[in-house]
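Field reference: sequence -> structure
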Amino acid sequence: MPRSLKEKYDEHLTFDALLEAHQRASKTKRNSKEVIKFEIDLESNLANLYKQLKNGTYEMGKYREFIITEPKTRIIRSLPYVDRIVHQWYIYEFIKPYIVPRFIHDTYACIEGRGTHLAIDTLQKYMRKMRRKYGSYYIVKCDIKGFFYNIDKDVLFTILKRLIRDQKLLALTHKFIYEKSSDKKGLPIGNYTSQYFANIYLNGLDHYLKEKRRLSYYVRYMDDFICLVETEEEAKEILASIRDYVEEKLHLELNEKSEYFLNHFGVEFCGFHIYEDYRMLRKRSRKKMSKKIKKWNQLYQAGALDLKEVLTSWNAWIAHSSHGSCYHLQEKFYQRMLFKEYLPFRNQTNVKPLP
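Structure field:
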């Protein structure tokens, strides 16, 4: 693997690559006005975008902002559709093939073939190995305070300059990080590039813990990460070294909830409370589904429930919760629904068709 990304911009800037980026960007937005308008004159719009990227005149559009409240309140910033095409092209042509392979094996966010469920599978496997080796052991659990909002743009760009030596690509990278905002810190939540930049930002910490500190049992999902060590002294020392690293190298702070504790308490990670032999959905996830069912029942009684939407949500929750020891919880929630005859559950064959 090359030490840095050199002279690749023009090689990867093709009409076909931009067309593929458009197809990915529009995949879940086929009926949006922006996509329809762009596709009315698709060839000309892509040719114009190609020309702007080729001669360096491409400028990002204006952000739209909106607020989401789940899983917690956040400001989401969304770019116009044409910019999302550029982000798709940038990530697929450069970040995924050249930079993602530099990540350690045990980081799981935003990487094809990994994800939350593999992260919790791996962590539980490591917990079992530690129990076999030592009986009891210590868990160091950390996350970053206000991670996306506090990423230092200068530190991020310095990291990327070590990886990217192609000047055209570096100029585009600079636009993504600095343009449309005078803030010195923070990446916009909602940008496709942000999740990859965030992963790159913590990649140095991953290598530090795995290679310098020689931690065999370490798992990270975005800014949540777990270390497993034998003794309390090791746990205390590792937590201190992580705190020093993120403050000195990354200009970040650990969340005040970052701590270490004995393994018999289990650990919350990626939506589950995990022990060596089983795992349960975290309390917040159970409460959220309980509230959903209450609302669905009220809408059903009022004749205003969208059963197709509920079916999608229910199937997704069943798939997710099935990665834990949730048999009785699933049964409990299923029985509470007034319209359960329309929902598939445990290979039932007598499910009523949706009206």
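Note: The first strand starts at residue 64 and ends at 68.
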